[in-house]
Amino acid sequence: VPKTDNQSDLEGPHRNAGPWLCSICSQQNDTSCMSCEVCGVLRDLSLYFNNTNEPEGGAKRRNKHSGVSVLARSLFTPSSPKSKAIVFSDGFRGNKNATGHMQASLGTLHKTFMTHKQRHNIVPFKFDIPSPDDMVSIGLKSSRHLRKADTSVPCVDIPGKMVMGDDDLVAEKDTSTDPSSSVKLDELGGNSSSVAANTRNETLILDNELQHLSLERKPKNSKAKIKKPVPVSQYKPEPWMLQGEDQEMPRQLNLAIVGHVDSGKSTLCGRLLHALGRISKKQMHKNEKEAKEKGKGSFAYAWAMDESADERARGITMNVGVAYFDTKNYQVVMLDSPGHKDFVPNMISGVTQADAAVLVVDASLGSFESGMGVNGVGQTKEHSQLIRSFGVENLIVAVNKMDSVEYSAERFNYVKSQLGIFLRSCGYKESAITWVPLSAMENENLVTAASDTRLSSWFHGTCLLEAIDSSAAPHRDVSKPLRLPICDVISSHVLGQVAVCGKVVCGAIRSDSKVLVMPSGELATVKIIERDSSRLSSARAGDNIAIGLQGIDPIHVMSGGVLCHPDYPVSVASSLELKILVLDITVPILPGLQFELHAHHAKVSASLVRIVSLLDQKTGKASARKPRMLTARQAAVVEVRLEREVCVEEFGTLKALGRAFLRSQGSTVAVGVVTRVVQRELELQ
């Protein structure tokens, strides 16, 4: 009877009719099954190969209890001179040893026990060339030789490589290989020994290459390879950096909008932009429609700045919004900062770029008192202290929501007197503070003078736009090397995969120039410079710009880093000495305190190592050595240790990179300046 494709060579007239019992799981299987349908154990082979050396009882016990072990033992039991020949169905021969176990080659067993459909042609390895195992073995031995070899060992000169000669390699002879397998290879034009020698050479080359490969990332504390820094005193600005000072071009004014939560900052910004034509009617109509659908009709103007879904859902500003508008004297970069206490770190990162600030105060009953912290910590006070610590000297106080108090002059004067006392205690001069009563929702006293007689009857000062335009021009220092703290890392189709934005605090930058990215110490090429979506060929100190970089991996660019001149790198600190002023705190500051240190756009965990001395606030001299703790309104010199390295400068060298803020448990506990930088060791090229 011809066999089908699903039949094995053993299938045919069976000695045992009916189902057979699996010795492992006791499953009854059909006679045609060669293995158990449940557990896959092979059927006992003694049914097909009669063992004359075993008694009948032994065969029965093996059939019942040891089904799988027969095949396993037959594969791994060494051959014996007493073995008997067994002829398989297709003419293949196997051996049966003295113990009665069947023994045959893997190809023979495969063809015998597998069905015709499942068979694969198994071609024996001829060993006329080195096998994969031989390649691995030779590689391991050559690796040991390379490590132990000294200069007296002869080498083969290969371009770019040094490998050992063939005479110094000893290969172990494989006794299991038939000597007759070493035959002449007509295709290669040589014998097996020459092939093996060439293979060994290739293996040595690969092994030597693998010794120098590493998949590990560069450790965080690895030293950056930068050029030896040149003293800053030797720096001289190039002629192109000074050309912009003589040209008539709009100067940039970075204006921070700060204040207590729900004081109307975003609404004021949106209303101002709409009045100046910076928001189209189509966009405004869309904002109004979406705000009404969500039951927040009064947020239509605020959504011009609060664009994210989270901000619109919660009704508060979470990130610093950026917008541009022009006045007679300036191109203003408006920085709408969050007022909620949970987002003060974001506010710090944005306001560090400010040249001037608008402090928005809610004039309605109860709201002003809440911002001043009558019943807790108010953000009006904290924001006032922070922007003064940033070096902002010109302050505009916008007393908003005057319509809610019927434009009362008494209420305005009360707010002015209460807040004025606190601002003067922060270091603001009376002449540098401008007070503007207004209503953002009603568009009163924003762009033009007040039209409502209830306000115009007693207030005869400037409107908000005029107050911004009359701000003192900030100082721009191009005489120092380039310093651009990275505010954010972005990616766009125009700027490229690696782009950063921030304010140039000193020096200048232009397209196709090289910059050093710190603290990574990597060089990059400036390809594109943009300001308010307009492309520039160069930018100078004070410009808030976006830059597209080339030739650098994105992992080396991070927020809080600094772009600087390749020959004049910024200082990188692991520890700092600070001169701080403790704010209104309830819990004293002790050595060992863990806190967050903010410096420009960098934020890092830090710890207070020791309190060096207390300072007399009038004279600035040390009044006590090594005090045990610091309390509210005290000034002191302290040492702090940073969890990771930060780019900073001493305050006397560069003020913008020399300010620091200490925050703990969600509030600012101290503000200060850097008096000494403990730099890391730099690996100089």
Task: Describe this entry's structure for a reader.
- The chain is about 20% helix and about 25% strand.
- Strand 1 and strand 2 (about 30) form a beta hairpin.
- The chain is globular.
- It comes from Aegilops tauschii subsp. strangulata.
- It is found in: Cytoplasm.
- One of its GO terms (molecular function) is GTPase activity.
Shape: globular
Low-confidence stretches: 5-16, 47-92, 147-192, 218-224, 681-685
* Overall pLDDT level: 78
Report the biggest beta sheet as strand number plus sense, adding barrel if it closes.
Answer: 8 strands, antiparallel
The level of helicity is 10-25%
Q: Could you tell me the strand content as a percent range? A: 25-35%
Q: Kindly, what is the distance between the CA atoms of the first and last residues, rounded to a whole number of angstroms?
A: 85 Å
**What's the total number of strands?**
32
Question: Could you give me the name of the CATH homologous superfamily of the domain at 251-470?
Answer: P-loop containing nucleotide triphosphate hydrolases
Tell me what the CATH architecture of the domain at 251-470 is: 3-Layer(aba) Sandwich
* Content-based structural category: alpha+beta
Instruction: Quickly name the level 1 CATH class of the domain at 251-470.
Output: Alpha Beta
Brief description of this entry?
With 685 residues, the chain is α+β, with helices and mostly antiparallel strands. The chain is built from 15 helices and 32 strands.
